[in-house]
Amino acid sequence: MKLVILGAHGRIARLVTDRILAEPAFRNVTLTLFLRNAHRLAQLEQNPRVTVVDGDITDQAALTTALQGADLVFLATVDSRPGNAVTHTVIAAMHAAGVSRLIASSSIGINHEGPNQAFIDWNQQMIGPSLAGMHAADQLLRASDLDYTTTRFAWLNDRDNRDYVVNRESEPFAGGSGSRQSMADVILKIVADPTLYVRETIGISDPATRDAGSMVY
């Protein structure tokens, strides 16, 4: 399998990369790591399973070239900007390269959801302007013919655990926060079985963080 990670220097992207290269279960996965300032991942350039590409995600020609032969694409960058240039370009490049399977990063709250109303109100106050762009990005994927999964990450923390619940869109979030390790673990489950969560918008959170006082960011 060839996995392309767009925005490959992000912290969750690097957790995914490290586990793919370290764990026997992923020994047949090769990686194309696409990012600006690719020298930041120079330590991986000698790995025979890794191709590092310097580029801008909104450069459709560069992206189309990087996606050639891909089986799965992980968009590790959250598209929250008005106009959704990133999502538009990714969809167009995937069509041009003949690739259909996409995992896209997003956030809790894009549909005014959360573990409880107090959290929903607080989340809207904190990141409301960005939520509209993320919601629009998810809508673009729904309207496309791609086999997408939108992963709505809860507020991220650096707890050393993989304690999480995956909620379908019709379900409330189990919690308000979750570890980056947990988010990466869900991505890796989809890498291991790309039939999971096809054309779904899922939520990932730690149920221990349902109450605001227990959340760690």
UniProtKB/TrEMBL annotation:
Q: Where is the NAD(P)-binding domain?
A: 7-194
Looking up Pfam families in the UniProt record yields: NAD_binding_10
Where does the signal peptide begin and end? none
Which superkingdom heads the taxonomic lineage of this protein's source? Answer: Bacteria
Coiled coil ranges: none
InterPro entries documented for this protein: NAD(P)-bd_dom (IPR016040), NAD(P)-bd_dom_sf (IPR036291)
Which PANTHER family does this one have?
A: FLAVIN REDUCTASE-RELATED, UPF0659 PROTEIN YMR090W
Q: What is this protein called?
A: Saccharopine dehydrogenase
